[in-house]
Amino acid sequence: MTKIQPPLGGSHRRPDAMAKATGQTRYVGDLALPGMLHAAIAVSDRASARVLNFDVASARRMPGVEAVVTADEIPGDNQVGVIFPDQPLLVTDRVRMVGDRLALVAARTPEEAWDAARAISPAYEDQPGVFDPEKALDETSPTLHGTDNLLHTFQVLRGQTDPDHLDADVIVEAHYEIGGQDHAYLEPQACLAVPEGDRITISASCQCPFYIQQAVARVLAIPLASVRVEQAPTGGAFGGKEDYPSEPAACAAMLAWRTRRPVRLLYSREFDLQVTTKRHAMVVQHRWGADKNGRLVFAEVEAVLDCGAYAGLSTVVAERANVSAIGPYAVPNIMVRTRIAYTNNLFGGAYRGFGAPQVSFAAEATMDTLAHRLGMDPLEFRRINLVTPSDPLTCTDQPLAAPQMAQACLDRAVKDSEEHQIAPRAPDSWRRGRGISLALYGINLHRGGQFLDRSSAVVILQPDASVIVRVGLTEMGQGNLAAVQTVTAAALGIQPDKVQVWQPDTTTVADSGPTVASRGSHSSGRAVLDAIERLRRRLDPIAAELLGCRPEDVELADSCARVSGGGPSVPLIDVTREMAARRIETISTGWYRSKPRVFDEATGMGEPYASYAMACHVVDVAVDPDLGLVRVEHVAAAHDVGRVLHRTAAEGQVEGGVVQAMGWALTEELKLDQGRLLNPSFTDYLIPTSDDAPPVTVALLEDAPGRGPFGSKGLGEPAFIPTAAAIRNAVCAALDVEINRLPLTPPVIVRALAGNHRFKHLME
Amino acid sequence: MPETIIIHLTINGTGRSFRTPPGRRLLDLIRDDAGQTGTKEGCGAGECGACTVLLDGLPIPSCLVLAASCEGHEITTVEGLVHDGSPHAVQEAMVETGGVQCGFCTPGVIMTSVALLENSIDDREEQGRRLAGNLCRCTGYEKIFHALEVAGTTDD
Amino acid sequence: MDLSVKDIYRPLTFDEAVAAFSDEPSMLPIAGGTDISVQMRAGKFAGAHLLDLSGVLPRSISADGGFIEIGAGATMDEIADSGPLRSVCPALCQAARKVGAWPIQCRATLGGNLANASPAADTAPPLLVADALVVAAGQGGLRNIEAEDFFAGPGENTLKPGELIHSIRLPVTDPPSFSRFTKLGWQREQIISVVSLSISLHLNDQGLVTKAAAALGAVAATPKRAPSVEAVLVGHSLDPAAISRAVEAVQNDITPIDDIRAPAWYRRVAAATLVERMLEEASGA
Ligand SMILES: Cc1cc2nc3c(=O)[nH]c(=O)nc-3n(C[C@H](O)[C@H](O)[C@H](O)COP(=O)(O)OP(=O)(O)OC[C@H]3O[C@@H](n4cnc5c(N)ncnc54)[C@H](O)[C@@H]3O)c2cc1C
Ligand code: FES
Ligand code: FES
Hints:
CATH superfamily of the largest domain in chain B: Beta-grasp domain
Strand content of chain C: 25-35%
Radius of gyration of chain C: 19 Å
Bound molecules: flavin-adenine dinucleotide, FE2/S2 (inorganic) cluster
Strand content of chain B: 15-25%
CATH architecture of the largest domain in chain C: 2-Layer Sandwich
Helix content of chain C: 25-40%
Structural class of chain C: alpha+beta
Radius of gyration of chain B: 15 Å
Largest sheet of chain B: 5 strands, mixed
Oligomer: heterotrimer
């Protein structure tokens, strides 16, 4: 067993930071090859139509155009659906959403490519579309695929589930309308495809090179081994580069295959906003009851996800939403139904939190409303109902390893919120409110996605005692390189700067699944530890020889091998030189896979996740009562992280997650009209600026070890989940109103005040 | 093909001439013609700040500025902040504090930050307002502010 | 991505620019480029023949008789920090500091902001309030256009073909006792105004309003003065009754529409609120 040692939990410089700060890091847009062509995509501007005729001949003749590709020229399957084969790479006779691809163009300059793509405009016959997810489930609605629009239903049924028998002293019924969100990573989608004989190399801004490998092999009808995908430095992702990049990559690959030249595809911001996947909009109906002592008696949840036109990862998102609908509360009787509806809106995909933020928003809002009806303090009401060591079961009847962390996070966030006196930034005349929200986060992939949950690592020990590490999980800003570097350095007892972690490449590591579900450091770290354990079977005997001890007594620390318990030591470099001299194998592979779990999909009972993390956010807001403006003044965020691997990276995850969630809660509105986004620019899709960002007090609680390397737990998503509900609860507390929708834009807030607003006569 | 024009300007201390189409954006001149790809394009519409460079010492969105308008002017990019192999105090501070995550906003954030310090704008609230044109989706800005604080004290 | 430009003329002096433009009014002037580049990128003006004003526009801010003259090429950053302007027309400095964010302010010009004639142009309300003159340069020399007559509709101004903005002149013989600008959007920085407002007031020793000027942005087809507000203020002190009359009156001055940024009703509420708050501030000042 490897001992815990530095640099664990420290804040050494992230390995990728200086190259980024000096402009040396080469993102896809910075790569250009001789003879490279530029790709563009002709897309539908209709959400629902039959494609009547379709002429690309004139586009082919436009200046600079080298190729125009349509569906009939695809050598393999015209299919890019991640889970269900419902999404063609190129449509032929029917479009189901704005942004459906009609044809691909390669030209000498990006301008020429996009001009030609825009010139391709088929004759359409508009068909009735459906844009409301609840209506989409009506039998009479037009359907997108097959005979109805219901993609899937998930349930959690616990205790008494017959609605007629669910009664309580106080019952709250609420209807939540929760908007979607764009990832707004700063680097739009980007990839480069380079053909070479019977194989092809793709460099892509992505979270999962393996998904791209599969999609490209499928579309080109070539073996997986013929597709090399390297993850390029990735300028933010947040889920938006999990499933989606397979589509642009397949486009670039098609064009490269056809033209036999390198082809680069860069999305513009507008195009990216208009066509890529979004956080799912959801409608959630609640009926929750509590007894007069403030104990929750039952919770009934009906959630409908707006899947958009294609399934994408919607089932996986819904799966997580389904079991996250109750939060960290002990409720004896539960009836959750989560349905996914196809609509002609932009399609939903992976996004930080994976459905959990939406249902958590509803749950935490209902908790406040119930508390008010009971005349209780929302904080007290939560304390009464939290899972505890004596009542440690999640809504799926899974016992929590550390249920006490819910209370611990709550206490810490409340304390930090009270103690950190931040000078208010909003005027005194604004109303103040505080809101609380918790999250119970299932770490890693859901049982349904468990087949993806494996991870590969390669460790190469160099003669000078430095180490090359390759893992299958990606760095997209969240700090995976730093985490893997830290884990490797700690396990080998060396300085982090002796460890170089290189970006994933499908030719150097085996399929490790997507870097999502806060599994990056967990799964890649565990695989690295496995590789190091195997390496040490070869290293320890050599060290033992040099030290004159038994191999099992060798310990690595301070860049030395030594006899454990404080005996003699030799520099590690002596050991690695000796290994080199003896031609001992210094490359080692590692593997991680999670243990099988039991879960009954019909009832939702069992172990959807291997382990859990808790979080609590307490938010102070100020609200302009006349104009509905909101200023988030302070956020206290307490997280159950098991163990901190890299401190500033961990804090950065929380600070960034909070601000991103604040954008979702307040200003980021996807204005859709008949499936078309009306605000595809940062002029009107408003993500938070430096001026909006609140100070965040981050507490990283290390009391309950997790199953990640050295006891760490995933953090990327829990950082996002509680914030929006806490903001909503704070705004509602400030104004004494109940608002059950997101985002809380100023008109929404002013409308909610309508009855009491001084200028209500102007609101007609 | 449109006519080309000749543009003379100074990039990172070196005077250079370029023959370009008249509609070339300063951003493309820097990236494609001068080969300095540190400056990024995040929106092309002046909103994100990833393309921020210094024009005669002040930050400007290079995606909106025509290269032709920069005749005779001085441009500084993120690459130009490194002197004799030593990064600028702001670059050091961004790395030290953890202000760099995905790094795509970073060059622009650094350019505006350098201009803030050069103009002695050290009030945090004012810094927050002036940096509002440099969007960052990863960090929540906290560590960027911290970097400004650190660089502000090491700078003088 | 190159912008679709056929040609660009880079004059060496402002006079050369004026001469060229009078000869060929179909040219497209570009100053800071912060509006025009965005529009060109969206596909407008393909194949344009550009007239690059960036090096030749008057740019200084200087006192001239009873006026302060601001060169059309002065940037928002320069205007925001201008000492002389701050003492006579703080509202304009405040507005300039609210145009986009700092990198935009370092590039965006005053002339461009006016010529672009957006209903939400932030420098327009303070200039309207200050009875500014827009000095146009054409074949026949310079001519003054009252700011109020300058805006003709969204994106439309009353420059004649071949005319350029040379400068903006602010009368400063009688500076107001109160001059403010404020704007409202979902965020406080880097935001297009949902409503903007500027008010200037002359108050006498008794606290009576002797002169009032108010103007709003983003509530009509052009930035516009608010004559009803002005009328109910003049001759009164800024007591609650006067303020509430002004708050009612502003509704007669605006014709907001629903658009992607905000519904019309919200703009009405916001206009009322901003007028009230600004006058309350003035009454305490
Ligand atoms: C991200 C972003 C945010 C913005 N935020 C704001 C904001 O908050 N408030 C606001 O008001 N504006 C805003 N703008 C718009 C823009 O920055 C301003 O309108 C700016 O002042 C325009 O000046 P410019 O010099 O860049 O004009 P240009 O783009 O060069 O020109 C604009 C128009 O004016 C014409 N023109 C320019 N100069 C002259 C002249 N001297 N004579 C005659 N015609 C001329 C041009 O032909 C063109 O039609 C924003 C723009 C961006 C990109
Ligand atoms: S790329 Fe220039 S501001 Fe975004
Ligand atoms: S570090 Fe990713 S956008 Fe700022």
